[in-house]
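Lecture 7 notes: from sequence to structure.

We start with a single chain of 379 residues. Read the sequence below before looking at the structure.
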Amino acid sequence: MSNYNLRNLYLKDALDLYESFGEEEPAFAKNSSGRVSANSVRTNLSGFLEDNRNSAFVWEEERSNKSNLDEVSDIFTENLLYLFCSQLFLNKGELSVEVYIPQSNLNKHLNYEGFINSFLDLIANNDKVQVINIKIPDYYKDLVKYFNELGFIESDISINIGTKFQGDRNVWMKTFIMDKLSNWPSIWAFVPTEQAVFAIYGNEKKITQTKFINYSEYLEDISLRSLCINNKLADCNGYLLKDYATAMKEYKKDFNNLPASLKNAVQQSEEYFAGKRKKFDLPIVFDNFTSFQKLVWEKTRNIPYGSVYSYEDLAIEITGNSNLNPNSFSRAVGQALSNNPLVVFIPCHRIIAKSGNLQGYKYDVKVKDWLLTKEMLSW
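Now the structure, written as tokens:
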């Protein structure tokens, strides 16, 4: 059984990086004489990561022979590919990304579709990035195919990177461009309520994120801000409007233009907020999260409408063990719930403190109280 995850690349990964690539390391890993060593990889990776304009990621596979991937001791991981990102023009919101795949992995099925979707979801949450320029060697044929299928714009400019592929021919670096305001495959949809605007993110096939946006809140993310302004949900300065009734009327004009999964999610959300729906039937996919997080969220999805569990109740539900250390495991459950990407659809608002206090909520405890009150009154 396999699980895929896009995680941060750390300095401790330097040796794995060196052993994966050898002489075909990214250019920044070479020393002044153009040679690559374990020491040069570590030194240059350290310098790369210390610059706050840079970031690096690993697309890894978790494998287990057992059905429950949450059994950490039985999980084995393999690094499948690496990404090195440089945000050189902060004022323009441009992110340059280079992708590297170890030679030993080129003929393997690396779940490229999952990788690209996970990366796009990651960048979608970065309000400083508007455009990404992804550079990959031209012999990554399967990856090139997926970029083209997802609607990336392929630049006419290719760069000779001065190395040979298997000693045979020059390697050219292809550049693919994607802009949040034009050819991005996912988009936001909005459900205004009396408490806040419920925002849903996804594409034709699936829903990947939800959030609440408070009225009068300034929208930091440029793509989200532009969509809200265009849909009359925000004023020209990017502040969410207070008048949700007017916002609802204006937004409905463009409802039929939404991708299929988003249109369905909006309809079901409206029914839920009106007290007419108690369960959701939506294409929810967890592309890029740990096995433990997925397990917590799946258990949370099964909590009945109008009911509440404590963090300890959920911990016992997951482990089947009422004798576990409640403090340590409950904290782990709470941490997983704080990273819930799909609030409401994964009803983490139904988890409260054992004392009966609401405790906290990602989008303000007032929203949590409002959701629980609405459910209990509708029940």
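The CA atoms of residues 193 and 244 lie 7 Å apart. Keep this in mind for problem set 3.
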